[in-house]
Amino acid sequence: MQNGLGLLGTDENNREQENFTINMTCQFCWQLATSDYVCTNSTNCMTVSCPRQRYNATCTVRDHIHCLGNRVFPKMLYCNWTGGYKWSTALALSITLGGFGADRFYLGQWREGLGKLFSFGGLGIWTLIDVLLIGVGYVGPADGSLYI
Length: 148
Description:
Belongs to the TM2 family. It is a single chain. By secondary structure, the protein is α+β, with helices and mostly antiparallel strands. The chain folds into 2 domains: 24-81, no CATH class; 87-136, no CATH class. Helices cover 27% and strands 20% of the residues. It has 5 helices and 5 strands, in the order βββββααααα. It has helices spanning 87-97, 102-106, 110-118, 120-123, 125-135; strands at residues 2-7, 20-25, 37-39, 54-61, 72-78. The strands form 2 sheets. A 3-stranded antiparallel beta sheet has the order 3-4-5, with no helix packed on it. It is elongated and about 75 Å long.
């Protein structure tokens, strides 16, 4: 729901200013998009753990964002976690043994690994594309974890 508010403001010398309008989405601060607030990082998250581990964070709304309710609020966030996969290992496997699907097997993507194995890396094309995708970090571990 969009609201247009007509406000009368004053400057630093308490002189009346012109009316102005602020358009804002009417929602509570805790309902904002994650880009509209900053949260504290966890100090007790385990790096290698189950992906469901969560922690209590204190979040603060950015100064230029308008919202209803408390501008500082608690929120449960997921920990960043890794399954132990290294980006450098995945890239090295993709360059050297990518035609046999070793990179995809290493990342836990066994279906794609079988496809690359039996098609000889898509006759080399799939291998080149995978080197690029792993190199820029687009392809990651199948369990959704982060690289070490």
